[in-house]
Amino acid sequence: MSYRILVGEGSCGIAAGAAKVYDALRPLLADSSVTLGVTGCIGMCWLEPIVDIYEDDTLKKRLVRVSADHAAQIAAACRNNTLDALSALEITEEDSAFLTRQTRIALRNCGIIDPNSMESAVKAGAYEAIGRILRKDGGMRPEAVIDCIKTSGLAGRGGAGFPTWFKWNAARQSAGEEKYLICNADEGDPGAFMDRAVIESDPHTLIEGMLIGAYAIGAKEAIVYVRAEYPLAIKRLEAAIAQAEAAGYIGEHILGSDFSCSFRIKAGAGAFVCGEETALIESLEGQRGMPRLKPPFPAAAGYWRKPSNINNVETYANVAWIINNGGEAYAALGTPDSKGTKVFALTGKIRRGGLVEIPMGMTLRQVIFEIGGGIRDGKQFKAVQMGGPSGGCIPESLLDTVIDYKKLGATGAIMGSGGMVVMDESTCMVSMAKFFLDFTAKESCGKCVHCRIGTKRMQEILGRIVEGNGKTGDIELLEELCAAIKDGALCGLGQTAPNPVLTAIRYFRDEFEAHIEEKRCPSLACGALLRYRIHADQCKGCTLCAKRCPVGAITGTVKSAHCIDAEICIRCGQCHTVCKFAAVEVY
Amino acid sequence: MNQIQLTINGIPCRCEAGVSILEAARQNGIEIPNLCNDASVRVYGACGLCAVEVTDDGNGKPIPKLLRACSAKAMDGYVVSFDTERVNQSRKIALELLMSDHTGDCVGPCKLNCPAGTNCQGYLKKIAAGDYHGAVRIIKEKLPLPAAIGRVCPHPCESNCRRALVEQPLSIAYLKAFAADKDLADAPYRAECKPDTGKRIAIVGGGPAGLTAGYFLRQKGHRVTILDAAAKMGGMLRYGIPAYRLPKAVLDREIEEIAALGIEMKNGVRLGKDITLSELRREYDAVILAVGAWSSMGMRCKGEELSGVIGGIGFLHDISSGEGEAPDLRGKNIAVCGGGNTAMDACRTAIRCGAENVYVIYRRTRDEMPADALEIEESIEEGVTYKFLTNPAEIIGENGHVSKIRLQVMALGEPDASGRRAPVPVDGKFEELDVDLVIMAIGQKLDAQGLDGVELTAKGTIAADTATYLTNLPDVYAIGDATNRGADIAIAAIGEANRCAEVVHSALSGSLTPYRAPFVSKRENVSADEFKDRVKQARCEMPTRAPEVRRHDFDEVNLGLTDEIAQKEAGRCLECGCHDYEDCKLIRYANRQEIHPERLAGLKNSHPTERKLVCIERNNEKCILCALCVRVCEEQAKKGILGLVGRGFPTAVRPEFRDPSVIAGCKDCRKCTDVCPTGALKFIEQA
Known about the structure:
The complex is a heterodimer. In chain A, 39% of the residues lie in helices and 15% in strands. Chain A is an alpha/beta fold. Chain A folds into five domains: 3-91, Glutaredoxin, CATH 3.40.30; 118-330, Rossmann fold, CATH 3.40.50; 341-424, Ubiquitin-like (UB roll), CATH 3.10.20; 429-517, de novo design (two linked rop proteins), CATH 1.20.1440.230; 531-586, 2-Layer Sandwich (Alpha-Beta Plaits), CATH 3.30.70. In chain A, a hairpin with a 7-residue loop joins strand 15 and strand 16 (563-564). In chain A, helix 6 (128-134) crosses helix 13, helix 17 crosses helix 22 (499-517) and helix 19 (454-466) packs antiparallel against helix 20 (474-488). Chain B is of the alpha/beta class. Chain B folds into five domains: 3-97, Roll (Ubiquitin-like (UB roll)), CATH 3.10.20.740; 109-189 and 523-570, Alpha-helical ferredoxin (Fumarate Reductase Iron-sulfur Protein, Chain B, domain 2, Orthogonal Bundle), CATH 1.10.1060.10; 200-294 and 446-508, 3-Layer(bba) Sandwich (FAD/NAD(P)-binding domain), CATH 3.50.50; 327-441, 3-Layer(bba) Sandwich (FAD/NAD(P)-binding domain); 605-683, Alpha-Beta Plaits, CATH 3.30.70.20. Chain B contains 21 helices and 25 strands. The longest helix of chain B is centred in the C-terminal third of the chain and has 19 residues, at 490-508. The mean pLDDT of chain B is 93. At the A-B interface, helix 17, helix 18, helix 19 and helix 20 of A face helix 2 of B.
């Protein structure tokens, strides 16, 4: 009996202590037949660090929330073949359901293979598709590849949802010998991390998808534009490119064919707008990251004004699977409008947060409650923010909305890159809207008037509303600005920036009105609008609050009810926090 | 090349295939608003002003998104509009947003505060350069009576002059009179008139308002007739203002200049007596009432009906006109009641008529007097006695003629609605003066004779719309002292007349366009700190005749400025108004439609003005980030000295990569200043 132990070392696992677990295990297994390795991210953030124990290729045990202290116990169990001794660390059945409800295509190898090992990737099927395409007899012509992608119905997973085959075909049809294939790995939406997970966990899948794309459009150079904030992804991708090059998958005459393609990585300096394809191209060229006017689209005049195709990581991660399994197999998943699967990064006030890949057509309720386990800490669901700063919030009443580009779009939110931030009753929707506006205003490149000044003004108006200085008419002014910015901004960043505000107003207008007209935050989240009082019948006179109050606003003697002077109170909330008798009420 | 056809704002256009909609419009003589486009550099698409809506893409379908005309190609069969509600709203918001982060003075506070909007900065610059005809040409764009007004105007321009933050305001009014005198003396500037339109306009009243309205309407090509009840034209300028301030010969010359445009002037015609309003309406295409306010208000005090109690306006009129009996006041005691400019004219005139004692009765103190401070000063020099904090309680007569005036002593109480401390009677405290004549100068009102069918306000003035100047009668306009709030200073009436002329012209041209105050950008809270490096230069003094000499006659008190003094004085101007105001595309578009940037007020970027490039001054607070300077420097000058730095709202144009050393590459080619659509870049001529 020989076991193989895999420690999940995505960035998130490492942050939770996975590397320490690995380091602790290594000496303990040095002289044993038990092998120790790493894998990428399985996507169960709330359980990290995760250690998987395989026997041959069969997962025997998945251990969760492992620390270095558990290393001896794990090593002993593997050495002694007493895996049952680890049941206390084992994932529960309920938590396992997180994975069993998923259909994984883009994430198919994530958390399973060793991202540092080409051998591990190839064993899982990497480069089969490109091999099939480039086969001397019975290979696929570029047109056939594009046709296959067309059949699959694959659409851009970065946010816009534009049909992938159409862009490939346009780039292929554009005149010129010099063409470029670019991967957008500038994943910038707050709360989205699926692209990082793919690169960190399965870099060869991305490389293969890009190779197929390059072959289809006729590009000889492939470039991955990845944000510099993803150092581990860059490191693993660099290694994978070197491995693939050594194995003849990258370079001149790949697999002996006429197809040649080089690869390189460009680390982006962390401007959100560089996720916009034309700003990304400007940045690649060494220019300031500012969007270009479209048309011309990159397929006609992109990098160095040459025909270029840009897709994001998740899109490319589907490509090899589609070639291997056929476009029809992919199209069999999903809805009439949206085919295949989509990866979501489920975060926020959710019990089980992480990466979720599901077929299109599932409802939001299924994802949040069945896969995600609902709201944590016994609170009530309020809304889910889809699509990050370009998206919008969706209220409880629309939770049965089916995940599909059109249906989500109809709510005012968008599919986006797959950020799914769940909010509970304690989230103030005005503050939430302001949070996203703060983000877009800060990340605006400053080029066009509507975005540069318009988002700033919206941010200021939202700021005064949460501060209790909102004016009657501010909602209408916001709506007017939103409409004008959507119409007038130059690029997608500006055109979609109003969405979080528009949806918040659409579904939670009463919260805006309460802030403006009553100077009240119904979610008790806006500090400037909170008031505190002590209920005399519950106060035991312990004096703790009075001692903690930084401004001496609380008076009272031992064993008698205390009282807050609202004139002096600075609304810091310390009294509420320290009271052991729940006598301090926030209202 | 392949020709295509499209319509832009309903106008059929032809252009070569492949050009942008903006270019297609340009080739067909249509200007689509734009700020960041220039043919010499690549399209950029930042300003958003060129947004257009395509309601038909040539196949009967609308394009859902607004297009930027600078980048979208013109296509055969396109139906393009840039005046739809959606486009107008988009452009309006863009302009409001731009203006909400634009800090600068389009015009200086002098022009801004002139009720007629006279371009003081413009003509001061001409005067400083010795170009007096040029100065008068600028003045007469707004005001046809500069020699007169320069002498008598209470000059709100000077009250707001920013040079006061250095030491003292410029002597703007006297400089205007100086330039006008110079101009009149030798080949005076005369405006051109447009070809005859065939439209006829009657103006009732030949005062400053009527003369101004006629002056501008005549230039538009209309036939103008000015009717006046008095023997000569000039109104209050002639009959209300004494000759020692405004010599009649000066006024005559300026009126001659106005008449020389081809305006018919009829004197001795009184409305309601010699001609009726309905006759005028029948005969003319439009009638403008500029009849003035010629009756003095009473004081509602006992004894007002006695002989020897007269109105200030009537007193001044009789002396100026020589009509009626010019009073011989030698050895007499005169009380003038009131604290305004009419009171000043009356008291100083009384002195000149030989009065022994002239008292000015004013219920507050000198600080609260509405009259010009200089006039108070000069009247005291001439021997006028002020009775501050007194109010007429009763005029006491003997045999039906005034003999004494009983004055209630007052004290200053709490500030009233006007912000001035309200005078309150001191219980039981009175004073008496022996007087032979009491002149009431506390206000004027309209004599509504002949205004049949014209609606009046509760105050008894003509009710005129403040944007169209129309009365209740569809072809009858009214301006000046006779209307709404009543009497005001002459320059206010002139401003109204100028604006009214535009409205009347628009109405006679087919579509009445109400007056809309132009939008201007202005800076708030300008402090003296900003000017601390300026060398102090005292305001020029107007030389005057000695009080003991001038009090005996009606010759002009002021002796006038010399060329040297005038040019030096005009050179003190700080040039607060933007150098680019006339050419600024931003302000031009901002005034094409009504905008209200104040509703989007928020943080403004603040930057110090930089003079780093050798000959170019950069004011980033006026910059709209069109990046034309950055692009032209890179693409045309091939220097790449300027770059954009920062992100989001604080983005700014700076030396590329924030590296000051790149500036050394600037060779003053001026390409950047030439393309800048606002006043953010200024070329400084080197001495």
